[in-house]
Amino acid sequence: MTDINLKKQPAAPGSGEVDRRTADAPEDGIPRDLPYDMMELLFFAYRDFTADADELLTEFGFGRAHHRVLHFVDRNPGIMVTDLLSILGITKQSLGRVLKQLVDLDFIEQQPGPIDRRQRLLYTTPKGHDLATRLMAVQTIRLERAFGEIAPEASTLVRQFLFQMINAETRPDVARLINKKYRPVMPAGRF
Amino acid sequence: MTDINLKKQPAAPGSGEVDRRTADAPEDGIPRDLPYDMMELLFFAYRDFTADADELLTEFGFGRAHHRVLHFVDRNPGIMVTDLLSILGITKQSLGRVLKQLVDLDFIEQQPGPIDRRQRLLYTTPKGHDLATRLMAVQTIRLERAFGEIAPEASTLVRQFLFQMINAETRPDVARLINKKYRPVMPAGRF
DNA sequence: AGTTTATGTCAGTCATATTGACTTGTTTCT
DNA sequence: AGAAACAAGTCAATATGACTGACATAAACT
C-alpha cells in the first residue's frame, strides 16, 4: 500500500549517491566526510515540525508526552496499557502521570477488557479524538506544504527513507502498526 | 551545491502526489484524510536516529543538550554565545549549565573576542572535536545505511523535503548555516 | 496451588527546559 | 563625556518528562 518495504535497488557498487557529500565508510568505521547539512536539516526540520503541535497542546496544558499517548490511543482504539508502553518505549511510571491526566480531563477513557478483565483498554473520547485530529491537522498542513514544493515522487522516497532509518529489528512491528487503517480492537502482539 | 533551495516544480494542479493518502486541505483548514503513516514514521525514525548518539553521550555523562552545543560549536568555530543561543532556540540559563560542563571538562574552550572584548568566542578543543566527530560518525552510519537501501535520488529529495519542513522565515538562515564548509570565524548575523 | 501477567502506585532522582531579575564589562551612539 | 545598548554570566524558583526500584492487587494460566 504505502510501499515502504521495498529494498535493495540494484545500485551498482560505487555508482549511485552522486550528490551526497559523504562517501562510504572506510575501514575504521568513521566515514571520511560527514553529511553535516543532512544532520542539521533533520534537527531544524523536526524541531519546527513538533512546534506546531506543541503550540496547540499548551492551550490545554499538555506536553509532548500527552500528544504521543493521545495519538497512539486514537489510532489504536482499545489498545492495552502494556502495548502502549512498548510502542512509546517509556516506563509505566512515565506513562502513568500523563495518562491519568488525559483520563481525568476526559480525553481518554478506560474500559475493562471483555475477555481479560485485568486489562484497561484505552479509547479516546469524542473530545480526545477531536484534539488528536486537530493535532494531526496542524502537522499535516506543514507536511503537505513541504511536499507541495518538491517533486511528486518525494513522498514515496521520504517514506522509504524514514522506514530505513528505523532499527531493523523493530521495522516489522512499525510496518504492522502503520499499515492498518482502523481496527476497532487491537490484537495484543508485542506492538 | 546541495540544491535544497529549488522550488515549485510545475506540478500540474490536481495531478501529482498520487501515492499519498492525504489530499489537499479543504475550506475548513482540516485535511480530509490524514497521513498517519508519515507522522508515525517521523516519530520512530527520529527516535532511533537520536538514540545512536545518546548511547555514546551517556558514556561521557552528557545528554542531548550537550550534543547540540558541541555540534554547533564544532561546526562554527569562534561562534559567540548569543548566536549559539539563537541557533539552538533556548535560553541563556539552559545553555549556561551545559556549556559550563563542556568547558570545565575541556571539550570546549572560550576565548575573548579580539575585536569586541565582551564576547567569549567558543571553540572545540581537540577532545571536543573528537567527540563531535564520533557523534557525527555514528549517526552518519545509520543515514548511509538507510540511503543505501533506497533509490539514489532519495538523498536529494529528502534534503529538499527537510528544508521545506523548516519555518519559511528561518529557511534563509538555515541555508546559510548549513551551506558553508568551514569558516574559522563566524560573522555575527542573527544566526 | 503456584506462577505469570496486567495494571497501578509509592518514593526519590535526574536532565532539560522555562521565567524574571540583576550584575559586570564593553561598546556604541548622541 | 555620558547614556544607552549589548554580551555574557548569575541567582532563585519552577515545570516537564523521563528514570529506578520496590511493592500491591487482581486475574489468568498451568
UniProtKB/TrEMBL annotation, chains A, B:
InterPro entries: HTH_MarR-typ (IPR000835), MarR/SlyA-like (IPR039422), Tscrpt_reg_MarR-type_CS (IPR023187), WH-like_DNA-bd_sf (IPR036388), WH_DNA-bd_sf (IPR036390). Residues 1-30 are annotated as: Disordered. Residues 17-30 have a biased composition (Basic and acidic residues). Keywords: DNA-binding, Transcription, Transcription regulation. SUPFAM superfamilies: Winged helix' DNA-binding domain. The keyword Nuclease does not apply. Residues 35-167 form the HTH marR-type domain. This is Winged helix-turn-helix transcriptional regulator.
